[in-house]
Amino acid sequence: MALRDLWTRLRGSDPTQPSEPPEPPERDNPPQPAPPPEAPPRPPEPPAAPPSPVEDPVPDAPAETPPPFREPPVEAPPVELPPPSPLPPAEAPPPQAREPAAKGGWFSRLKAGLARSTAKLTDSVTGIFTKRKLDEAALEELEETLIAADLGVAASRRIVEGFRKTRFGKEVTDEEVKATLADEIAAILGPVARPLVIEPARAPHVVLVVGVNGTGKTTTIAKLGKQYRDDGLKAGFVAGDTFRAAAVEQLQVWAERTGARFFPPAKPGADAAGLAFDALTTARAEGLDVLLVDTAGRLHNKTALMEELRKVIRIIRRVDETAPHSVLLVLDATTGQNAVQQVKVFGDMVDVTGLAVTKLDGSAKGGVVVALAQEFGLPVHVVGVGEKAEDLRPFAAHDYARGLLGLD
Ligand SMILES: Nc1nc2c(ncn2[C@@H]2O[C@H](COP(=O)(O)OP(=O)(O)OP(=O)(O)O)[C@@H](O)[C@H]2O)c(=O)[nH]1
Ligand SMILES: [Mg+2]
């Protein structure tokens, strides 16, 4: 049976429907005392956690016969949180200083990060169009180049059609082609370049962060948390990836760095939905502005993951029926077309409201953002170009398109 059919069937018994008997949230996650607002100054250290391997776009179902996710290990010891690690202090420039100071440098870094994607795209363009007539054969080669650069079939076709309409039969140079390509790409990206707007009036605005493991969920939460702090918002992080102690520790370190309120599970494997319920209850009482909920990227299989995500949503709606206010799907640009697959799979599980695309530094597959925009039209809120807290930026269509083509 196709997996999608399986999920559709599962959704048929949608646990969010009122027919389901109420299920008390697990209360094994008492609110933890608030951490000090600022971590003490620390010497530099490499990133908080080692890179997680990027696995299949989605875990296959059903895998072996693992224990159900709701049952935590019986005698599991409490999560041992690490002693404060020697990390750099959270940089907290005044909110107004952040954007202007970074703007010029940011574009250079985006461009540098995209260099491999740019090379893939422009080397071929230069090869095809060194003073050449834009005929059928040239258009065909252009389309192949775009597809090979991960822009996807639909976007590549759309772009080539644009060329056909405006330039067909004319003699063109590679520079003209690059400039036109950048315009066409910017036109595709424009509608999806939308910021993740936090509405503090939600008190708090809940952002559920989902994605395959290793894509950068936890790091993206940390980066967003820093931005919100810089903007004067009070943020909380919920360590919803409760099975892995390392995941909890990683988020705690980031919470300390960024001055975010931290909500850990009471013990490894504790119920993520119960944790989220308690965290949201406390966050409301404490007047937090934004609550970022980390989630596991992979459970035993897809069904278990879907069940967990849907349960988290169902349970937090008992505190705030409008939550989560955003469901952010984090994608790793280095996985190319797998990212497209991941949007489909997660879109079937939950209502994804927007995307974060990470690891654009050093990825040769930055063109995939164009494929995502064309295929799904979901907002691309932010892009990640590095591992540091400041390496996350709002997605800007024009800059991205120019950067991808290596243009200024
Ligand atoms: N170069 C680069 N590395 C990144 C970026 N974003 C995240 N990473 C790194 O990718 C690795 C995985 O990031 P995590 O944030 O742990 O990913 P995750 O999705 O939370 O992973 P799981 O918790 O295992 O599901 C870490 O080493 C991060 O430092 C980025 O934009 N650029
Ligand atoms: Mg994580």
TrEMBL record:
Keywords assigned: Cell membrane, Cytoplasm, GTP-binding, Hydrolase, Membrane, Nucleotide-binding, Receptor
Location of region: Disordered: 1-102
A molecular function (GO) term: GTPase activity
UniProt catalytic activity: GTP + H2O = GDP + phosphate + H(+)
Subcellular location, record wording: Cell inner membrane; Cell membrane; Cytoplasm
E.C. no: 3.6.5.4
Residue numbers binding GTP: 211-218, 294-298, 358-361
Ranges annotated as biased composition (Basic and acidic residues): 1-12
InterPro entries xrefs: AAA+_ATPase (IPR003593), P-loop_NTPase (IPR027417), Signal_recog_particl_SRP54_hlx (IPR013822), SR_rcpt_FtsY (IPR004390), SRP/SRP_N (IPR036225), SRP54_GTPase_dom (IPR000897), SRP54_N_sf (IPR042101)
Domain SRP54-type proteins GTP-binding: 204-406
Feature: compositional bias, Pro residues: 30-97
Main location class: membrane
Subunit structure: Part of the signal recognition particle protein translocation system, which is composed of SRP and FtsY. SRP is a ribonucleoprotein composed of Ffh and a 4.5S RNA molecule.
Family of the protein in this entry: Belongs to the GTP-binding SRP family. FtsY subfamily.
Protein name as catalogued: Signal recognition particle receptor FtsY
Organism: Neoroseomonas lacus
The organism's taxonomic lineage, starting at the top: Bacteria, Pseudomonadati, Pseudomonadota, Alphaproteobacteria, Acetobacterales
Gene: ftsY
